[in-house]
Amino acid sequence: MSAAPAIEATDVSRTYQLDGVSVPALRGVSLTVAPGDYVALVGPSGSGKSTLMHLLGGLDRPTGGRLAIGGREVSSLSAAELAALRNRTIGFVFQAFHLLPRTSAVENVALPLVYRGVGARQRRERAAAMLDRVGLGHRLNHRPNQLSGGEQQRVAIARALVTDPAVLLADEPTGNLDSATGAAVLELLERLNAASGVALVLVTHDHEVAARARRRIAMRDGVVAADSAAPAGERHADAPAAAERPVELHDRPASGGADRPDTLVPAPSAEPRSASGSGPGHPPGGSGGATGATGRLPRPADDRGAAS
Amino acid sequence: MALGALRANRLRSALTMLGVIIGVASVVILVAIGTGTKQQVEQQVEGLGSNLLLVVPGRLDVGAAPAVSPLTLADVDAVVRVVGDRDRVAVTVASGATVRAGGRADFSTVQGVLETTPAVFTRELARGRYLSGSDVDTSRRVAVLGASVARALFPDRDPVGRQITVAGVRFRVIGVFAPLGQSLGVDRDDEVHVPVTAAQRLYGTQRVDGIAVKAPDRERIDELGDRIVAELARRHPGTEFSAVTQEQILGVLGDILGVLTGVLAAIAGISLLVGGVGVSNIMLVSVRERTREIGLRKAVGARPRDIGVQFLLEAVLLTSVGGLTGMALGVGTALLVDALSPIPAAITWWSLALAFGVSAAVGIVFGVVPAQRAGRLDPVVALRAE
To answer: Does the ipTM exceed 0.90?
Structure first.
């Protein structure tokens, strides 16, 4: 781990005040996202993974603990400074794309550059180049309603990456897409992750999607139930059950070293492995497994160090 | 960027602007009419001639009922003695009467005057001659027609030398005035001048309604007025007289018309205010409707200020474009009114600047609250909004 972490959370908590009652959504989460990481953030709804994603993206601030994004402690930043930090460091991809309607693809992609003070011509050039990289060089002036779902998400990915961020936060990026299109979008994200060194943090319900990540962080009840930097082959096998049963992580044989390059061309190789892994991936007694996972928390840290 | 959002909602933007357009246009039109009227009245009062002193019985007050005049031609002679120059003194005894010629008739103001009238007031003749001293001295039944009367009675003939009857008494036309136009909707060319002596005989009266004096210079005008009023008061104990100058008349009329213009502008301003409330309302709707857009913009790095400025710009753009359109509409309408109706309208630069400034300010004032609301939205909440 030569490079400084892109995101470093230390005992981060986030408590919401609802009608005067304190509702803890995160209770002491510690993790780091290294440059070039490929992390799947999984967990049932209510587990705190959305809250965690908002914190990691600098959209929200923790109520406890320390959180540094791009080396800057967010609690000391004003709303404007935090916005500038998001602009520099984070790229967002959302389930619902969140493209501006009645605005061309190239203008949508150029939007983050507006807030960076980049001139109009350069904005357009950089946005067009980025659209070209996601395979939409021929669709610059199309509006979102003239694009397919997959194309819209690729525009959103281009928008997220046009500022050359350190971290790409993708919140269910394939959730609104059919499986073939979703797979293509995922491939694109992985390719960009591999090529540009942007850390990819993927929030997902989809086990197959999660299975492809190099590292998986499973959330439960506001804490990290499992954080695995296990090699690709190892994870793929138990992917389907990952969200619900993070415990299964340790059951996989450590065969990942040879398979890891596969992550860059994931679609063909991941499929059979996920299928075979779905059998043993459903043992009963998830709660027992959870304790097991927590017990193994130190391990992923070691692995991650080795991986990077 | 702000422009894009407005263009995307063309109909709504247009309707919102309509409120501002109507408000600004009505401000421009009403101020133009007020200003035009004021200018016209001032011109006319000044056009009467310079250094004028009007002597009337009673107190010259707006809205006061005109007093029945105790003045006679003997008082006029006394005033002439005070002034020291008969050519500087004019009188009038006026009444409405029907004037006929051939088969045509016109009801107009028949004024009994001295031959000095054109010297005291500025009146120009289009043709013929004015009354002479001997006309007055001998009560000759001769008349000078105002342009409207001449047109009404002799539409296709030269009236000079022709016979007319005034209240049934025959007069001979000796001259026609050059047109003066209208003042506050009153046709100033609808009058007939006859010798004061003939008019008194016609109306069966000895009275003179008012005396006008052309002072030799501006410095001594007040002193001269005081002396005339003192002399008349001496001749008619117990009756009050006043002598007023053009400046005083202009002052009184100017005050009235100024207040009138102000009231008109204020009424129009209320509609502009209502337009502003409409802008505020639409901007609030827009903020709510575009909550997700705001969330997205914040996610990609927009600061609260960026969002606030964007919405404020949209509001100001709405009202400014509306303001410019309203100005164009107002100027066009005012020019049309001026050209096609007897109502005078004058466009002043300050009224345009004011209208535009106010509309832009309305955008700022009524855009601030929606803009602040937009800027303060929590990005997490905003992104989740439906």
So the answer is: no
